[in-house]
Structures are given as structure tokens and as C-alpha cells.
Amino acid sequence: MKPWTAALLALGLLAAAAQTKPTAPELWNWLADQNFAERWRHVPGEPEGKYRGGPPHGAVLQTFVNDLAFEALRSGRFPLPAGAVIVKENYTADGRLANLAVMRKVEGYNPEGGDWFWAEYTPDGRVLFEGKAALCIGCHAQKKASDWIFSGQD
User: Fold this and answer.
1) CA–CA gap between residue 72 and residue 78 (Å, rounded)
2) What pTM was computed for the model?
3) What is the per-residue DSSP string for 101-144?
4) How do beta strands 116-121 and 97-105 pair?
5) 120-126 contacts: CB < 8 A, separation 24 or more?
6) How far apart are CA 38 and CA 18, in angstroms?
7) pLDDT in tens, 50-75
8) What pLDDT, on a 0 to 100 scale, did the predictor assign at position 152?
9) Among residues 26, 57, 43, which one has the least CA distance to residue 131?
10) Which domains are present in the chain?
């Protein structure tokens, strides 16, 4: 392989890696395509459906996980694999959906934060915050041993 060909290939790989950097709008669109509330499962060890919550989320919660997250949590495999996604629907005391908090595991994204990409949305998909969210990381850091995850298995 000629040196310039190798350089172009390396640049192409770097460009592809840069394109995989997560964004909240991309994640929202993917979640909508997944129809997560109908097709995904609940966290093993947590109630199915809505359950009592509290700060910083909502008074009532409902949590969904994709298959990668479900299988890892069910078998107690930590850290969760790249591609694992957790969605927490946060409801007010009167049952109104207030927002959605999402964790997406992205290999190499943020090693200091467990490689989790964090996002919070309004019910219609407006991004409230995204990325290496200090609020999320600060709270979830107490659960580093369980890959930054609070669950019914605690």
C-alpha cells in the first residue's frame, strides 16, 4: 500500500469515528424508531410498569432497557456493553410525563463517566441537556461498581 493511500484510509477512519460521536437528536430519532415503550423490557429486578420514584427524576418512574442492557443486567455483567441503552420516563405525581432521561453506552466516549452518553428530553423530544452531563455523572458516580447504574439489583 502506498503511503498516501494509507494516510487517506486513516483519515477516512478518523472521519467515520467522528461521525459516531453521539448527539441527542440522533438518539431521540433512534429511540422513536425503536418504539422502546412498546418493544423494550424493564430492568430486571424492578417493577414492570410505573413505580414510585423521587428526586432528581420524577415522583413516578418507568424504566426501559434495550436487549443488550437487559441481558447484561439480568446476568450481572458489568460494565454493560457498548450499545446498551436505558430510558427512564419521569412522571409528575399527577401522572403527567415530565421528561425522559436516557443513558447510552458508547465505547471510548467518556471513560471518566463510564463511557455513558447522557441525554434528557421533553416528552416531544426537545433536548434539555446532552453529553457528559455533570448532574448525571455526579449522582451516578456513587454506583461506579455497577457501571453507574441504579437498579432493583442494588
Assistant:
1) 7
2) 0.84
3) EEEEE-TTS-GGGTTEEEEEE-TT--EEEEES-HHHHHHHGGGG
4) antiparallel
5) 121/24, 121/28, 123/97, 123/98, 123/99, 125/25, 125/28, 125/32
6) 32
7) 999 999 999 999 999 999 999 999 99
8) 52
9) 26
10) 23-146 (3.50.70.20)
96 in Cβ contact with 73 (< 8 Å): no
C-alpha–C-alpha distance, residues 136 and 48, integer Å:
24
In this predicted structure, the answer to whether residue 8 has a pLDDT above a threshold of 90 is: no
Q: Is the pLDDT of residue 153 over 70?
A: no
Q: Are 84 and 96 in contact (CB under 8 A)?
A: no
Strand partners, 102: 87, 119
Taking only Cα atoms into account, the Rg of the chain, rounded to an integer number of angstroms, comes to 17
Tell how many helices (H) and how many strands (E) occur in the chain: 5, 6
